[in-house]
Amino acid sequence: MTLRILAPLLIPLLSVGLASPWDVSGLNMKPLPPNVAGGVSDPTTTDADADADADDDPDGADEADAADEPDAADELDAAAATPQQIIDVVLPCGLRVITAKDASLPVAAVVLALELGTRDDPDNLPGLIHALAYHLQQGNRELAPGEAIATAHDVGGLAAMAVGVAQVRFESLVPISRLDQQLRVEALRLRAPNTGRELWLKSLSYARGDDRVKHLVPPEAAAAAWQDPGMAHDGRVVAQALGDMLDQGVGAQLSRFYDYRLATLVVVGPDEPEALLERVEPLFADLPARPRKPIAAAVTPPATGAAPRVVRVPRQKGDSMVWAVPGDLSARAWAQVLCGTLNRQQQGSDDPGKARVRCTYADDPRRPLLVLRAAGYEPAVGPEPLIAARLARISAVATSPAVEPELAQLIESQRVRIETDLSFDLRAPFELASHLASAGERRNPKSAGSPGRPRDEVLGLPLARPSAAEADGLGPSADPVAPVAAPGSEGPPASAPTGEAQASLPESAATLAASIPELLDTRRAVLLLDPDQDVPPPAHDSAPSPPADGAPQPGAKPAPATGGPAGKQPAADKQPAADKQPAADKQPADKKPADKNETAAGGDA
Amino acid sequence: MSRWARTRAALVVGVAVVGGLTGGCRCNKETLAPIVFETGSDREPVDPNSVLAPPWEPPLVAQLDNGAVMHWLRETDSPAFHVRVLLPTAVDADKLSAAATTAALEAIELRLSARLRRIFDARLELSSRPGRVEIAIHGRDADAEELLAALASTFADAGNPKLLAIAQGKVLARHREAGPSALAAAALASKLLDHPLAHEYASKQDLLDLSKNRLEKGWSLLTDPRDAVVLVHSGRSPADEGMSEAVARLGTRWKAPIGFGSGKPNVTDRLRAPAPKRIADTFLLTEQAPASLSFHPGKPERGNRAVVMIGRVIPTPTIESRTLARLCQRLLQEELDVRLLVAGPISILAIKVRVSSTDPVASLQRIIARMQVFNATPQPRERLEQAANLWLGARVVEASLSGEDWTSLWSESIDLAGNDREIFVALARDAQGMLELEPEQVQAYMAEWFDPQAGQPGWMWAAAGVDDTFRDKLAASIRLVEQ
Prior knowledge:
By secondary structure, chain A is an alpha+beta fold. Among the domains of chain A are: 85-283, CATH 3.30.830.10; 309-465 and 505-529, 2-Layer Sandwich (Cytochrome Bc1 Complex, Chain A, domain 1), CATH 3.30.830. Chain A has helices spanning 3-18, 47-56, 58-81, 128-135, 147-153, 179-188, 197-208, 219-226, 240-243, 247-257, 273-280, 329-344, 384-399, 405-425, 429-436, 455-459, 468-472, 500-503, 508-515, and strands spanning 85-90, 96-101, 107-114, 158-163, 168-175, 263-269, 309-312, 320-324, 356-363, 369-375, 452-454, 526-529, 599-601. A seven-stranded mixed β-sheet of chain A has the order 4-5-3-6-2-1-11, sandwiched between helices. In chain A, a hairpin with a 4-residue loop joins strand 4 (158-163) and strand 5. Chain A starts with a helix and ends with a strand. In chain B, strands 1-2-6-3-5-4 form a six-stranded mixed β-sheet, sandwiched between helices. A six-stranded mixed β-sheet of chain B has the order 9-10-8-11-7-12, sandwiched between helices. The termini of chain B are far apart. Chain B has helices at 3-22, 48-51, 98-116, 144-157, 161-173, 180-193, 197-200, 204-208, 212-222, 243-253, 267-271, 319-332, 360-376, 381-401, 406-416, 420-435, 439-449, 468-475; strands spanning 60-63, 69-74, 80-88, 123-129, 132-140, 229-234, 293-297, 305-315, 337-343, 346-356, 460-466, 480-482. Chain B is an alpha+beta fold. At the A-B interface, helix 1, helix 2, strand 5 and helix 14 of A face helix 1, helix 2, strand 1, helix 10 and helix 14 of B. Chain B: It comes from Enhygromyxa salina. Chain A: GO terms for molecular function: metal ion binding. Chain A: Residues 35-76, 437-509, 525-605 are annotated as: Disordered.
């Protein structure tokens, strides 16, 4: 009798098994034994032994497992209760070191980030920073030309370089067994690099071969948004002047720009952060003790009046406005929250019929941009009133969530989305190390306190403040954020109903407004116009008032990361030394957008 | 009803009941013996960092209702979710053609990628390893249930005749005849493993010849869950709320074809191709027992060069022998284009040679002479360490860059292990063994297995891109067999 004949009879019987509901207890699950990971040994128990062990006393085994479970659970609870820490210290030589743990695989990521970029190119030597970054691969007395790259490649690792507007990074991913060799490379890289003519010309040829960056925003518009003329040129050009530089000139420029006191070394590996730091410190112990160089803050420039600044760029439709986003991790994350909110925001009651606002976020470690493009607005007044109205609604919700509960919920959902995206994108050491290279600088030196910082804080995740209900069970937050007045309105948005409904609304909007207030004000933006277009009338009557609390003005003009060439920046624009804000920066080639629809990543070498 | 008829009916019912209770039973403790993974717990723990192996723990093992075996690797707090389905192709190599496999995979990709587009950050990856194809889905752990549901639905509905026909058409539309290199490699593999060429290589004619029945048969053979293995890497437990239902759905929606049994209980048994029945006793370009060269007529490669693939099967019954074979291949690869496919107890060595039309036999002789010189040259310990570190480091670095997917490494570990119990330690032992090899061991092994004119017999070769000029010149010194 063949199977074909038997099949009709077997189907019902087989289907019993096929359709049986899932029951974990019915599966042959082998519970996780206590921590025995990674052991390597010769077989010590035969299959027969193993089977016998398994069959001996299943109940007893279950009991043992059950007895083990609470311990494991306690350990997990204890681990969860202790927030993960990231070490962030400044060594005596002025180098900042950040170490973090990622134990998923036995690999370590090492990133040496320098707070300078193509914006620091001298006027007569465009492309200098980019070319010098390549030249730092050419070795010195301790490293042979190309050894820095070969150290990673010879063990199957990855070596990369990223040169942006205001940050240069040397990135590598190596097996943990080769971490010390890679750290040695980074500890030597900036020390008296070779300056031979032949090596310099080779560096220029590498620089010349780089792909050109595709800009989401025209460079002149980005430069205007940041009020930073250094951003207007192509930082990857290899001009004849670079080829004409003498060896001494190359050496002088290297020592002038590339300095450990401007650098941050990030190490992410499977060891504890303290252990990673212990591997770093001896490598820099021989450098003389020097204070860290003051690094200009990547803060956005102030408004210049009641109207947004206007930039004339050919082939513009006059429908776009560009904001400079503060170059710190938290502001970048909140800018993405804002962008996601704007792209999903419902039309307002006063909006024209087919009005739309589309937001795009151009990420960069130190010089991010936010672009809003309006459609369906009244041509005579330009896009500003429409955009300002949308932003004003968000600002109003920040003060009183109950004004527009749906919008408050939308902001909260976008916050959660971005937080989840970031946590997911930063799960591997390479991405995490690149991200940490842009972390805000801590103010206190290592000796002044604990070197540890909460991981979430350093990563700049968009975390909402505790809700008012959670805080005191009463009304809205006690930390009101000054709303931005809607165009044409007399004052702040009308107060919304308070009470139970308001108390239960999320506080994300308030945190957003507090984190990036400049992005809610169209007077801090740049309006892109074609040279032939007329300037529309301003939507506001007056310039925004400066902060009253004496805090550093967020719009202060960023100073160059290093002593830039004479005439590059007007002296009056430079920040006072007392400000000592972190420096500004550039673009990562490998930066993965958190939201591919809304985020445009910059390009690196 | 006659007595005989009643007896026959009772017999049928009896057989059916017995069959149903034994072979048909899907998910119970009798079908799957517990696996006690070697963990080395009786010894001093070895730091996984020193041997470049993932810090994983033994997986949870289960058999789904449809017969698929699941290994669940848990990494606490991992925000990512990876599921990888391993579908053996070598088990029914004589019935499963490359053309049918390609069409079935295309159907899976069509249906599954459409479903994954609706899940943020979800990604589909199709790949192949010796004797199997792999379907991997990567996404977020929070979306694990949706990802598993997409996989289950795809296995449930992608095998319908209409979609398979569409997939066949799409494969045909973008089909380009492979170059001599791919054809020669496929021909060598089919010779070494004693498979039909159609199992290794899908020509346009093979695709055109796929009838509805053959497409459906191919789908059934390829996606039979009783031969399949499912690997999961997640931050959650399969017993978590929601997850258990998703896994159960995978076991119920992805149905097995009608048949007996629940499949082999061990994943190594499921995935391993049977060893070739005939072991060749031939050498290359020798007077005694010379191997004949099977060739495929066709247009030569760029530069008017034909491609000859030289190869052999190397028995690799233990992890140590696999490690030795791998290191020898890595060393020789610095000189020649050498590949090694490790599949448990056997490994396939293949060396690609591009021969010129001027004197193709001399080209082959030069390559063999280079191999012999290389084998005779002692390799310094530093060079062994360099080759080992490069191989081992690249393995973990690539895994990290591609999303820290442990299922990919576990799949590789299956290939390195001799049996299921060894899977857990195979990667670590492979790394440790490779770093401890002595130069003398390597030289002796190369002399035994990497010399086409001495050492162990079993060498074969196949050529493609052979035109009349090549054929005449090769035939002067080598016996040719046209394929």
